[in-house]
Amino acid sequence: MAAQRAARHLRRRPGPDIDGFDHSADTVAKPHRDGREVIRYLFTGAGEDFRPDTGDFPEPVIGRGDGWEGERRLDIRRTDVREPLTARRLGMRPAEGFDAVEPDTMDGCRNRTGLPLTAGDQLRCDRLVARLARERGPAVGLTNDLDQIPERIGDFDFAANERCARYGGCDGLTPFTEADKAVFHAEYELSTGRFRADSRRLRLSSLLKRYEPDAWRRAC
Q1: Residue 141 forms part of a structural domain
Q2: How far is 109 from 119, CA to CA, in rounded Å?
């Protein structure tokens, strides 16, 4: 029930989507004082060599990089290894202050990981992440991977998407809006005029952002 309440509130008063490692409980508290929800951003399908738990990921589950410095994809098939590590990430402080979690890198089967991942592997992994998040209270969002939305709409409370207008496919997010679930959408290269009409037609909450992880944005 807590996750469902948070998901409803996200449609009305969304707040910042912030890194799950780098921010304190005080950072989370300020948007709450303004009546806004706060989303916690975490990698669940890749490891980053600058995170404090990097050494907890054994070498056999680490795949290749995907172009971002310090980032390596993980073997999502190894549930025995990934479940306790993911649960630990979701439960680390100040987890209790967040209203929702956005697990990213949930599209390994669509990327060059150096691992033979299938769509079925991805679906099982994502449902595991959703279950672990909901067991801890917050709403949980699905990031990107438009192809599998129909199979996962019941497992996730909202969606987050990057560049669906740039690459086509924003219509694939319709199952979320038809279920009255929020969709948060960011573009980077396009001007807002290039995606504003479709965003409003599809009922997306869209922003233009820079690639730098700062607070600058332009609402659509």
Answers
A1: yes
A2: 6
Q: What are 143-167's pLDDT values in tens digits?
A: 988 888 999 999 999 999 999 999 9
Question: What residues pair up with 140 in beta bridges, in sequence order?
Answer: 101
Whole-number Cα distances in Å, 71 to 66, 182, 186 = 7, 28, 21
Between CA 82 and CA 42 the distance in angstroms is 14
Residue whose C-alpha is closest to residue 56's, from 69, 47, 45: 47
State the residue range of the domain holding 30: 2-157
pLDDT for the residue numbered 147: 87
E strands present in 1-151: 14-19, 37-43, 46-48, 62-65, 71-74, 100-104, 139-143
Q: Quickly list DSSP for 136-174.
A: TSSEEEEES-GGGHHHHTTT-SEEEEESHHHHS-GGGGH
Average pLDDT over residues 48-70: 88
In terms of Cβ atoms closer than 10 Å to its own Cβ (0-12, 13-18, 19+), residue 177 is middle
The answer to the question of residue 129 being in a domain is yes
**What is the domain-level CATH number for residue 69?**
3.20.20.70
Q: CA-CA distance, 17 to 101, in Å (whole number)?
A: 9
pTM (predicted TM-score): 0.88
Which has the higher per-residue pLDDT, 208 or 17?
208
